[in-house]
Structure formats: structure tokens, C-alpha cells
Amino acid sequence: MALTHLVQRKQPKPLITEQGVLQTSDGTSDSLIAHKYWTFFRNSFPNSAEADYTAKYFVDGKQYKKIVILSDYSSYSTDLADATIKALKAKNANIIYEGKIKSGSQNFTATLTKIKAMEPDVIYFSGYYTDGGLLRAQQMQLGIKADFVGGDSNDNPDYMKLAGGERSRDTFD
To answer: For burial by CB atoms within 10 Å, which of 34, 57, 133, 157 has the most?
Structure first.
């Protein structure tokens, strides 16, 4: 296949599809399946499915009245937070704060102090476990009594170590 054939294409995925090359991804973005490429397979739930489940759990299950949504600036975290906000709004949930943190910054007390004054029932974080664990630990240090729920990328054994171990029992992911 000529290099010019590859360079002329704006998107490489149709070429992969044309050649019958299978592609798998654990990516969760709904846009990954928007083109319906027959050779693309995703091995995890899309953000919209996780978001719909989270909204149902928050509103119908736990009946949270004051919800905080935090994300970082990564495309994964932002897309999951946006999908969750959309699903919560469809259920008329009361989102009292939507914010972002800088991943890897280690100190989230300024954001959490602002949130503490709002007295949330739950803090939902759509980012990765390295920040999620620290958020939860700092949340507890500040005496914020809200539950902490993380998206699927918080499902990591090191999350609990970062969050404070057994002290983080009111954590859901």
C-alpha cells in the first residue's frame, strides 16, 4: 500500500476497516462507536451507560439531594463527567457544584473547602484513582461528611491506600 494512500486520508480508521483489521479498546467514550466500524470492539461500557447507572443510583437508590461533580481535564474524565451531568439532569437531580481539579496536583483542599460549605450528600469524581484517593483522604481530613463515589477508573487497590484504607469505607466505585 502506498504511503500516499495513508497520508491522503484524514482518518485512519476507515483504512483499518477496509483492510479488515480488528481493533479493541478499553476506551469508554461514546464517540468511539459513533462511526459503527465493523472491526472496532470495545471491552468496557460506554460513558453513557456508566452515567445512566450512576444517575439512577444517586436519585432513585440513595436519594441524594445535593450532588457535587468533580472531574479533571483529561478527555476521559471530562467526557464521563459530562455524561453523568446529562444523566443526572434528565432525572432532575440537584447538582450543587460542577468543578475541575488539576490532575497530579496533590492538594485539593481549596476546592474541597469550597465544597464543604455547600454540605453535599455525595461527591462524584470521574477522574483516575491517583487523584480520587487523595481527594477522599483530604475530604475526610476536612470533615466533609458526604459519600464519595468514583467512576470506574477509581477501581484500583491503590485507591484505598491513598484514600486512607479502612477510614474510606463510604466510598463507592
So the answer is: 133
